Amino acid sequence: MRTITSRRPGLSSEAEVLDRVHRTLGPVDVVEDRSPRPNTGRLLRIATRSGDTCFVKWYRDTPDYQRELIALTTYTPALGSDAPKLIDSDEALQMVLISEVAGEAASLSESAWDPLVHYRAGALIRTLHESAPPVISDQFARQCAARFEEAASRLEHVVDSALLSEARVVIARAMDIHQVSLVPTHRDNHPGNWMVDSGGHVRLIDFGMSEYDPWIVDAFALEHDYWRIDPSLKVAFLSGYDREMSHDDESLLRAHHAVIALQTMAKVHLSAATKSDKVRARDMFDRLVGSTLF
To answer: Could you tell me how far CA 35 lies from the centroid of its own chain?
Structure first.
C-alpha cells in the first residue's frame, strides 16, 4: 500500500530543502539562484565540498512537481547523458535533486540560429517522444475547447467577441480529428532549454511542463519565435525529427496555439504584467486570428 506523505501548503523554505539535500550529498554551497518564477518554484545551482555541481528544484504546486518527477523517472532515462539525471526526490518538499548537464543555453548565443543545432534538437525531441508507448485519445480537442472557454470567460470585456468567434473556428477544426496519438512531450521546447557545448552537442533540460500531448506541441515555441524569422530552422528541426507536418498536425498545433494565446491574454490581463509581456500576448493572439496564422 502506498504511503501518503502529508505536507504543508505553499512553497517549502530554502532552509528545509537544503537540509534535505545535506542528508543526501553532505554539505553544499549555493552557487546561484536560477529561479525563473520564484513564486511558483525555486531552482538553485549547488556545489558539494568536492566541487561537483548539481541543481535542486522544488515547486509550490503538486502537479508541477509530479510532471517533473514523472519525466525524470520515466522519459528522460531514454536520453542518457543528454538530459539531467535524477539524484533524489522528496514528496513532502516537492523537490527533485538533479545532475547538471554540460553546455550553455542556446538562447544565449548564436547557437539559437544554427540549423545544425535545430537539427540535433529535432532528433533529441524525437527520442523523448519515443521514450514511452504512445496513447491514442479522442480527448485532446475537447480538452483544448474546455481550456479555451475557461480563458475566454475571463476575457469577455477585453477581447472583441467576433475575434473570439474566429479563434473558436481553430478549435472546431481540431475537433474533426477523432483519434490523436499522444506522446511524452517537453511542452517548453525552445533554445532556452537546449544546452549546447563547445562541440555543438545538444542536451535538453527543464521538464516541469512535460505531459502526454501530440508531438507537434513541441513545435509551438519554435514556430512562434524562431521559424517565422528563419524558415530554414524549421526544415532543419523537422529533418532531425525525421517527420513532416501533416494537415492534421497543423490543425492540432493551431488548436494548441489558440489555448496558449487565450491563457496568456488572460494571465497578463489579471496580473501586473510588464508592457513587453502584454505586447507578446497580443502578438500571439493576433497571429492566431490573422490571415497568416503561422
So the answer is: 15
